[in-house]
Design a protein that fits this description.
- Helix 4 (about 65-70) crosses helix 5 (about 105-120).
- Strands 3-2-1-4-5-6 form a 6-stranded parallel β-sheet, with helices on both faces.
- The chain is α/β, with parallel strands linked by helices.
- The protein has 6 helices and 6 strands, in the order E-H-E-H-H-E-H-E-H-E-H-E.
- It is globular.
């Protein structure tokens, strides 16, 4: 199977490394750090078996979202959904509530849907970013098009143990 990952950060890269052990996988990340990690074969974060998998991986980084969409039958979206700084998890929660920032996720899905339409290629979009079902219905489904059916994949793996 041909798989693409959009988002090769602390969570996306380990998951892509696992997938690349069994499938033909490419990844894209706007941050050049992902390309440098693959080039150097040095994994900079704590993640069980990531260094071992990185040393033997066939994962390739592509230059554009269009290239990732052209490659994959399934595109896993693993981009950040950061929380407001007041909700870092250490101090007492403020009285007001603030949702996560979905702008990165919306931008990534918009690019993926646009690329699929331009290429006239049907791909499955599998959202792995931290989002709940209501958020997916509200924020993601309206962006998709006839070329991009959705697979909601709420795995919520913890960083450091994503490979397990």
């Amino acid at each position: 199977m041909k798989i693409s990952f959009i988002g090769l950060g602390k969570l996306g890269l380990p998951l892509a490394l696992v997938a690349a052990r069994h499938h033909d996988v490419v990844g894209y990340d706007a941050n050049p750090q992902a390309r440098e990690i693959l080039r150097s074969r040095r994994y900079p974060h704590r993640e069980v078996r990531a260094q071992e998998y990185l040393e033997e991986t066939t994962l390739r980084v592509v230059d554009t979202v269009d290239e990732a969409v052209a490659h994959g039958d399934v595109v896993f979206v693993v981009v950040q959904t950061p929380h407001h700084p007041d909700y870092e998890g250490v101090t007492r929660l403020p009285e007001t509530r603030v949702d996560f920032d979905y702008s990165y996720l919306r931008a990534a899905v918009t690019e993926i849907a646009g690329a699929a339409a331009r290429l006239q290629k049907k791909i499955v979009v599998a959202v792995m970013s931290t989002v709940l079902p209501g958020t997916v219905r509200r924020e993601i489904k309206p962006i998709l098009n006839e070329w991009t059916p959705l697979a909601y994949n709420p795995a919520f793996p913890a960083m450091g143990s994503a490979i397990d």
